[in-house]
Structure formats: structure tokens, C-alpha cells
Amino acid sequence: MSKLLGSQRWASTIRGTQMHVLMRTRFVTWFVVLMMSANFPTITFADSPCPPVIHVEILDIRNSEGSVACVLFESPDGFPTKYLRCATNAMIIKVRDKQVSFDFHDIAPGTYALAIIHDENVNGKLDTSWLGVPKEGYGFSNDVKGVLGAPAFSAASFHYDGQNLDMTINLNY
């Protein structure tokens, strides 16, 4: 009988020790999870702030043919025709569902102007009639229009303060 009681005590001691280890493991696991979750926002967001952007939404696109080019100038030099030599940034995006938008990142504060072309036949230029009237869509920042030609840089220019900026530009055909 005493052997039986001794083995019961032994089994009870082992179960108690196992239960103690199991509870301790659960406590440590929960503690680690809570500590990590409390620090995640600091780790995740502190190292990856969203950089400011100039977001340009193009409106009134006639069709989904071709692509739209958006060119950013920081001075009147070459505006708007000599974009390959004089532009600060240039982007070309294929039109899908008559919608296009552009995001310019890492732009320093200053004065800029935008020129946009809907290159429907993707030949890399704004097609015009023999009189020089555009056959494809075009637009400028501030939605300015030129008289007998493209507008001046000063008319299309806008000030960028280095913060997020949302713009919409309507195309003219």
C-alpha cells in the first residue's frame, strides 16, 4: 500500500512539475508577444515615412489608345517642346480605361510647370495638322491654354512647397 501511495505521490509531483513548466512557457510566450506587438508600430512606421509626392490626375482622355506623357519642368528653358533636353522629370504611361495618373517623387520645393500629351499612335510626338493645330490631346498645369501656340512657363507654373500636392489636368483635343 505504501508503494502505491509513493508512486501516486511521484506521479502527482511529475504532473505538477509539467503543469508548472507548461504554465511558465505560456506566460513567457504571451509576454514576448505583447512586448513585440507593443513595439511593432515604432519599428514599422519610424523607419518608413511616406515621402511627399506630386500626384497628377489626367482628365478628359478621349480614348484608351496609346499612352500619355507627363513632363515636369523647373524653368522656362525648353518649355514645353524640348522635354528630352530640359525637363526635370518625364513619365509615359499606357492608357487603360481612359484613366492615367502620375506620381512625381523626390521633387525639391520650387516653381514648376507640367506639359501633358496624349500620344494616341505612340509615335513619340504631338501630331498636328498642316496648320499646326494638335490632332492629339494636350494639357498644361493650371489648365492654361496657349493662344496660337503653347502657353508660357509663367502661365503654367505652380509653386511646390515640398509637401503632398494633388493636381488635375484636363486634356484638350
From TrEMBL:
<dbReference type="Pfam" id="PF09912">
    <property type="entry name" value="DUF2141"/>
</dbReference>
<protein>
    <recommendedName>
        <fullName>DUF2141 domain-containing protein</fullName>
    </recommendedName>
</protein>
<dbReference type="InterPro" id="IPR018673">
    <property type="entry name" value="DUF2141"/>
</dbReference>
